[in-house]
Structures are given as C-alpha cells and as structure tokens.
Amino acid sequence: MGAGGGARSKRPSFSCFMIRTDLNIGLFGFGVVGQGLHAVLERTPGLRARIGRIAVKSRDKARSLPAELFTFDKNDLLSDPTLTVIVELIDDADEAYLIVKEALLRGKAVVTANKKMLAEHLPELIEIQQTTGTPLLYEAAACASLPVIRNLEEYYDTDLLESVEGIVNGSTNYILTAMHRDAQPYAAALAKAQELGFAESNPALDVEGLDARNKLVLLLAHAFGLVVGPTDLLAVGITGISALATAYAREQGLIIKLVAEARRLPGGGLAAAVLPTLVRPGHELAQVHDEFNGLITQSGFADRQFFLGRGAGAFPTASAVLSDLSALTYGYRYAYKKIHQNAHLALTPETAEVEVLVTFDEAGAAPDRADFTAVHEEFSSAQRGSYLTGTIGLAQLARAGWLRAPGVCVVRLAAPLRAAAGVAMPILHEAVGV
How many whole angstroms separate alpha carbon 290 and alpha carbon 6? Predict the structure, then answer.
C-alpha cells in the first residue's frame, strides 16, 4: 500500500523487455580455454547455454567428460541442426577459417578466439556476416578478459576516437616484466612463461610481435572502421631486445613494453604499428605487469580512458567467450558502422615519423644513417656495443634492410610523431615521454 492508502502499481520487470534465447553449443577444441569455458558455463546456469557436442583432434587424450560428448568429425557439429552456436577454440588458424566460414554459411552463429584467423580473413568474414545476417563475435581474440571490441563498437560508435594504444599480448608482457622487475634474462623469462601456460611451446607468434599485430588489425576495424591485413602493419617483437637497450632503459628510468598503437594523423590518415617502446614509470602502461593487458583510448568527447585486465590464461579468455555467448542470447551482432562512416580512411605510414633507439654490435648490420630524417645521438663502446637515437619515417623503418639483421635492436623512444612535411603532429605516446 502507498502512503496515501492506494495500491502501488506494479512495475514491470526488466526481463519483460529482454527475451533471451537458449544456446546449444558445438565446441571445437577442448584444450586449456575449452576446458575453462566448460567450467565457467557450469557455474553460470542462468546464461541458458549448454555444450551439446565437442569436436577434438586427438583420439588418445584422456577426457574429463563422457566419451559420447566428443567427436573427431567436424561435420558432426556443422551438420547438426540442434547446435545453434559454434564456439571455435582450436590452434590451427587455417582449419579454424574453414570451420568458421562453413558455420556462418550454414546460419550458425559463431564465437571465436582465433585472432590470427580473423586478421587474415576479416574482409571476407565481414562480408559473409553482412550477406547472411549471421553473427560472428570475437571479444576473446583481442585482449582476453578486457571488454574492448564491444566498447569500441558500441560505446565509441559516435565519439571521434583519436587513438588506441596498449599492451595486447600477455605472454610478451610477462616476459618483459620478468626481465625488468626480476632482472631475468630473456631465455629464462620465456621458459617460465611457457611453464605457466602464458606462452606456447613455439612462441614465435607472441615474441615476434605477430599476435599483437593480429589484434591491432581487429582494433583498427572496430575503433576506426579501417579493415587492413596483418602485413600492412609494421611489427617488431621482443626477441632482439639487447642488453644495451635494457641498460639504456634502466639508466633513463624507463620501462620497455611491447605496445600496439593506432593514431589519427592531422592529414586525415592513420599510423599504426607494434613496437617495443620505452615507457616512463608514471604512464598507465608502466603499471601493466605480468600477463595483464592494458588499453588506452583517446577520444574527442570521452577524453582518455584506460582498460586493464588479464590477457592470458584459461579463465580470462573463457570469460570473454562467455560474454559473447551472453550477447548472442539477446541476438547481438557487430554492425561495423564505422566502416561505412570512415570509408575514406587509410593507413598513411609515409606521412608519419617516429623516434627510435637502435642498438647494434660489430657483427650485426649497422643502421644506414641515410634512412633517418635526423640522427640525434651516437654511442660506441667495445665493451657495451653501439647505439644511435634518431627520427625515421614509419614507412622507411618498415622497409629498412637492417631492421631484421642479427644483432640489431629497435626500441621506440618517447617522442612526437611528426608529419613528413614538418607539420607538427600529436605525440604518439602523449604521456610516455620524460
């Protein structure tokens, strides 16, 4: 009864407005993440999603679930009309592409965590989604537990994003943290990351910066509406980080992080790259340790925002898959609105310059000074090796023959990014500098 004695009207519940559908899942892969997904689904019965069948490759592995739940034939899942959603969590990017494409064409919604597959086939997969109206969601492919893709797609759909930058690979961040904080050599830090399951037995995708590059492809599509291929982006990993570069960072009070970044340029284009970067201690990314990921967005209206969360491991990745499954129960799909809004946008690395530290030894190929717009500092020591700092065009750096030479290490310095014509441009890492 109300205060005046009249009957208080009953307010409709939220559930009256949101109709959820049940999901019957066909799961491809039952490794670390697949098992993590099964565990979190068991703990979230309100989601109304269940695993109906699991396709696996190995016939010899012992399984924790009843044998009748498993199959070794992918068509048992793709052809089953009772399975409404395909969750793809396998390592093989080529096989994952065939599975995802076929599932979409058959009208089955798909959730995947395979960033390599997505980055290599994104234009085709977007076209299939738009043609069939079947959703493909991949929050787990960007930054594991960080809710990045849907925020870029929805929250920033009308806000002018100026940049996204972040640590998007938990394996390399774990290694770099161990090298900086614990003074571990690279090989020991990598071995520990593999032991903990943060790095694969073949870690090349992570440590060479290729995984971060694949994720940057996804971020570009949802942040700016620009769809590019992985090979369109410069990626330098952490395998070549030298003792001299590490010493330089310590002496300057800086921290080396592997940073993926995309930024609008005043001329109307975009610059994007993955580079080891010197970060000052007060910067947000300096606080991202171990297997965590961190992403900073800079926008015209919302200003600067920072996302932080675990970027590797079974449950962090499974949580992102779970979020996508929950979204599917409400019929959610990516609209890719920015692709149409920003049809004129393009990568223009030839208009961007970056400042770098380059270390090299006598056995390695010395950088060609002619490649640099300016060389600022040079140092050489028989005991410690040699280095130079200078300004170089992003496109010129990407095609420099010495970039991948043995004994050469390239680390990005905190410095303004400038237009090739000399027009002042925003600082690529506005708060990284000292």
Answer: 60
Question: For residue 312, what are its two tokens?
Answer: 């590797």
pTM, two decimals, is 0.90
CB 198 within 8 A of CB 172: no
Do 276 and 256 touch, CB atoms closer than 8 A?
A: yes
Give 142's Cβ-side CA count (13 Å radius). Answer: 31
The C-alpha atoms of residue 15 and residue 34 are separated, in whole angstroms, by: 30
- The answer on pLDDT for 45 being more than 90 is no
- Ordered by where they begin, the domains of the chain are 14-138 (3.40.50.720)
* Band of residue 386 on the pLDDT scale cut at 50, 70, 90: very high
Measure Cα distances from 332 to 76, 110, 150, 325 in Å. Answer: 26, 12, 10, 9
Predicted local confidence at residue 19, as pLDDT: 62
Question: What are the angstrom distances between the C-alpha of 312 and each of 57, 146, 272?
Answer: 23, 11, 23
Phi, psi at 109, each rounded to 5°: -65, 150
Which amino acid appears at position 202 of this protein? N
Catalytic sites, residue numbers: 215
By the 10 Å C-beta count (0-12 exposed, 13-18 middle, 19+ buried), 424 is classed as exposed
